[in-house]
Amino acid sequence: MNNIFDYATSELSQDAFLCYLFNFASNEYEEDDQYLNKCAVEMLRKIISSKYSKEKKDEKITVTQLKKQYKNIDVYIQINDKYHIILEDKTYTSQHSNQIERYKDLIENEGKANIITVYYKIIGQAHPEDVNIHITRKDMLDIMAPYIDKTDNTIFSNYYYFLNELEERVQKFETLPIDKWSGDQYRGFFDYLTDDENNADGLRLDRGYGWGYVPNPRGGFHGLWWYFSTPEELEKTGLENYNVNDLYLQIEDNTIVIKIVSGDKINDLKWNIYNYLTESNLVPGLEKKRFHNGKVMSIGYIEYDENDYQDKIKLMENALDEIRNGSYTVKV
């Protein structure tokens, strides 16, 4: 379908849609479309309940003030002259400089209480922000779905189908071969890998993780980094003596890479670890790119695809275990 949101892709366009939807919960427009009124009220009730769980289900929800870019807040909503909602809207970026906390302070300094913070993000990210409620693409689809066949509002349906098509693209990592993946599929894949429900036999995430697009002069990659080393493990191997700060794993598009971080340039040390891994056959098929001196470097990598990624992940995690448990010591 010809969809305005295929062209109006900026965060400001999304802010405008959210304001448009919330305005159906105002006294002025609540009777214009009963279904959009119900949708807006449902979304606002969900937001309020995230902090004030005792909010009564039968309390009438009315937007009494609605502003875009008020004090640089993406969307500011006042409900029932009582609740004050700060909504930060992001697409491919994330919040910076502690934005939401600063906005909250600004509203508090106006003498207002009952402040609720919302992070609205239709593109996935590794970790939720520290807010009262994080509304994702899936959340928004769930909120809008009951009304899509009841209203004939074109703007509403355009936004719903825009989100739905995005969701379908993201989930295609399950059916497309990896050489056909784009950023949408990698984001879906990384989200799947790090979801607790899917991770019983997957990544070992207890040491922390992150994922996202990593730009670099060679064109960048879609990456997921995890399985970091402890200072005790680095000391056991002797790596600490070479000013090594970390040894961890990183997915870079269709490869899984062993990464090393050091305060010094350590080309000889990289060769030493690479030779240990290949000579002990801990990682069959381990390859390396040209070694470059730097502080964050790749030791070696293997390729994976949509069918064998679990086995390849376990193989690389086990190899790192072997290095860190004392089987390997530095010999440079």
Automatic annotation (TrEMBL):
InterPro entries assigned to the protein according to its UniProt record, in alphabetical order: PDDEXK_4 (IPR029470)
Name under which the protein is recorded: PD-(D/E)XK nuclease superfamily protein
Pfam families: PDDEXK_4
Organism: Alkalibacterium subtropicum
